[in-house]
Amino acid sequence: MALTLIGSYTSPFVRKIRLLLWNDESVQFRPLNYFEEVGNKVLRETSPFNQLPILMDGEQPIYETRVMYNYIAKKQNLRPLTINEENILSAIDAIISSGVNLFSLKKGGMNIDDESNYYLVRQKLRIPTLLKFVTPWAAKQHPETDWNYLTMSMVALVDWIEFREVYSLKDFPELKSFRERFTNCPGVVDTNIPKA
What we know:
Layout: E1 3-7, H1 12-20, E2 28-31, H2 37-46, E3 54-57, E4 60-62, H3 65-75, H4 83-107, H5 118-139, H6 143-146, H7 149-163, H8 173-181
Parallel strand pairs: 1-2
Antiparallel strand pairs: 1-3, 3-4
């Protein structure tokens, strides 16, 4: 049964699943712009989580990227992630989640530079702390041997965080170098965030 991935062109969560499924020509990608009224309505009606991506295997919906990865890994007989790889993936996802939270709050009109707001301060501190955690790992990754779900996730993170200007990577040149090394991996150019 063919898979259908419903998502936006800009979401890092969508992009990492698109990259994971890039070589499977049977997968259909159905773009959805939830910033538009029609797209937002479809999203609310399709996902109880009210978030993207949504992976459909026939009539079976899968709502969260970690569950999607586990489902796809099982279908494709991918080796299980080690505990260290799970920790790296959790850190990447947490950076993306904090970034998405900050972006959404800012888009909704909130001043995300309000230092008196405990939640905002925690989200903003979480990003550099986790970037420091994943950077040594990222510096050791090479496209010829390490093109996998973790590096796909990292590519999606680096591009999105710069595109949305959620956090400056100027203090993380290793991540810029990482991104340059992985430019020519399958699907990276084709899934680049469209420039407005």
